[in-house]
C-alpha cells in the first residue's frame, strides 16, 4: 500500500506551498501571455457571424456545446464557435487573459484563486454542476470494494488521490470526510490524474480517491465503491466549473458575452430535454464508449453560477490555505 511520510501537522503548510506555486504560475504565465494578445472575437466568421474560440478538456460537459453547433443555436445568437480541447485547465487562464481564446472552462476554486491574485477573470455561466443528489452525482469519493472502509471518516490518516491538490476535487474529498465527522486535516492527499484512478484503487496504491465521470464508472467497474458524495457536502447548489472570460472582453465586447451566455443557456435547455442525444454525442469527441456513455451520471446543467456555492468554496480555500484574502465575488461572477 502506497503511503506518504508527511506528518498531518505539515499538511496545511504543504497545501499553502502548493497553492502559492499555483498562484505564482497563474500570475506569471498570465502576465507573459498578455504580451502576446490576439483578439479572436474580432475575427469575422462565415455569414457575418462573430467567431469565438472555446477552450475545455474533452469531457462530457461539452456535449451541449456540440449539440448547440449541430442545431444552429450559436448561429441563432450570431456566433460561430471553434472548440479547442488541447488547452489545459491551468494554461486556460493565461490563454483567456491573452485573448488567445475567448471563453474557457475552469473549476470554481481555481477561478477564485486566480481572482484573489488579481487576475481579471469573469465567470459567465456554469459549465458543470452537481446534480445535488447524494448517491446519484457525477463525482464521488471511492475506495476498493474489499478495503473494509464503508464511510469517509474511516479515511482519516489515509492516502487519498485527487487530480489536483489545489482545486475543487481536493475540497470535495476533504469535505466528505469532515461532513462525516472525520478529521479532514489528517488526509494524505496525492495527485493522480483521473484516468489513472481506477488502477490506483484496484492495485491498492491509495486508500481512496475523489473521481468524476466517466472515470467514476470505470473505477466502479474495477470493483471500487462510492462512500462519499463531496459535491453535495460542499454546497446544496454547487457550481463545479464555469465558462469564464476576461474582464477585457466583457468591457470591450459585452454583446459577444451576452450572446454567448444566452446560447449556452439555450444549449443547456436542449440538453435537459434530450438526454439521449447528450449520451449519443459524448463518444464522438471523447474516448468514452457508447456503452459507458449510456450509463454514466450526467452533470447537472445550471443557468446561473451559484453565489452561495462560490462563497462556501472561498471559505474552504481560506481554511485550507489556498488563499489568504477574501475574494471579491462581485468582480468574479458576471451578474
From TrEMBL:
Signal peptide region: 1-32
Alphabetical keyword list: Signal
Domain of life assignment: Bacteria
Record keyword Signal present: yes
Sequence ranges assigned to domain Solute-binding protein family 3/N-terminal in this UniProt record: 51-282
Protein family per UniProt: Belongs to the bacterial solute-binding protein SsuA/TauA family.
Protein name per the record: Nitrate ABC transporter substrate-binding protein
Amino acid at each position: 500500500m502506497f503511503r506518504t511520510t508527511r506528518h498531518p501537522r505539515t499538511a496545511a503548510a504543504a497545501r499553502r506551498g502548493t497553492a502559492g506555486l499555483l498562484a505564482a504560475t497563474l500570475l506569471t504565465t498570465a502576465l507573459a501571455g498578455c504580451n502576446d494578445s490576439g483578439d479572436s472575437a474580432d475575427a469575422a466568421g462565415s455569414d457575418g457571424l462573430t467567431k469565438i474560440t472555446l477552450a475545455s478538456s474533452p469531457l462530457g460537459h461539452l456535449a451541449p456545446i456540440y449539440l448547440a453547433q449541430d442545431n444552429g443555436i450559436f448561429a441563432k445568437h450570431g456566433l460561430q464557435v471553434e472548440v479547442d480541447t488541447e488547452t489545459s485547465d491551468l494554461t486556460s487562464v493565461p490563454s483567456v487573459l491573452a485573448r488567445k481564446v475567448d471563453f474557457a472552462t475552469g473549476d470554481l476554486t481555481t477561478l477564485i484563486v486566480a481572482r484573489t491574485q488579481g487576475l481579471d477573470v469573469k465567470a459567465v455561466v456554469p459549465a458543470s454542476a452537481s446534480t445535488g443528489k447524494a448517491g446519484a452525482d457525477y463525482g464521488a469519493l471511492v475506495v476498493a470494494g474489499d478495503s473494509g472502509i464503508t464511510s469517509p471518516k474511516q479515511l482519516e490518516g489515509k492516502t487519498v488521490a485527487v487530480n489536483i491538490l489545489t482545486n475543487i476535487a481536493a475540497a470535495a474529498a476533504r469535505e466528505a470526510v469532515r461532513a462525516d465527522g472525520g478529521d479532514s486535516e489528517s488526509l494524505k492527499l496525492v495527485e493522480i490524474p483521473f484516468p489513472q484512478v481506477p488502477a490506483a484503487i484496484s492495485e491498492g496504491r491509495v486508500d481512496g480517491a475523489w473521481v468524476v465521470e466517466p472515470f467514476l464508472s470505470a473505477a466502479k467497474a474495477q470493483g471500487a465503491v462510492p462512500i462519499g458524495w463531496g459535491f453535495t457536502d460542499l454546497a446544496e447548489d454547487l457550481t463545479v466549473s464555469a465558462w469564464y472570460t476576461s474582464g477585457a472582453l466583457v468591457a470591450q465586447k459585452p454583446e459577444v458575452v451576452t450572446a454567448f451566455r444566452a446560447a449556452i443557456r439555450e444549449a443547456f435547455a436542449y440538453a435537459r430535454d434530450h438526454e439521449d442525444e447528450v449520451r449519443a454525442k459524448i463518444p464522438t469527441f471523447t474516448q468514452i464508449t457508447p456503452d459507458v456513455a449510456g450509463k454514466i451520471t450526467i452533470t447537472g446543467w445550471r443557468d446561473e453560477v451559484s453565489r452561495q456555492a462560490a462563497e462556501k468554496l472561498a471559505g474552504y480555500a481560506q481554511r485550507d490555505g489556498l488563499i489568504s484574502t477574501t475574494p471579491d465575488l462581485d468582480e468574479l461572477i458576471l451578474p
